[in-house]
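User: Could you check the structure of this?
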Amino acid sequence: MTRLTSVAVASAAGFTALASLATPAEATGWNVTAGSGAQCKGGGTYCIFYSPNAWFGSNNAVWSFNYRAPNLGQWTFAHCSQGGDGSCAGWNTYIRNNAASMAAIDCKGMTVWVYPNYTGNFTWVSGGSWGNLNGYLRNNEASTSRGNLC
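Assistant: Sure, the predicted structure tokens are below.
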């Protein structure tokens, strides 16, 4: 797991808007990319999971999206990673402060922040990859966005 400051991640990952959004200045980010071959059920190109390692065969709740989410407190886990919706751990639970892993299907990558409106400490995965939220952000997340690099 790589630990970077928000400005370094902004430069390294191509998140040009990230530097201005990541306040306070001492916000820290971690690249939690663990592997490739990420998958999302629900039609989105980015997803956040209720449990860690959700793409490895267990049936866990997932929320997939194609856009930014400045406040995860208004969304619930709407799908199950396997099997019928409504039959998995975390289904219909509010996402905010209840997520453990994330995935980015396309080339743009995904970032999860501890506070609403893309502020505070954050974790991110590279495009086409998945990873578990680190100990600081697991069950302690409030907003998500995707990168702008392809």
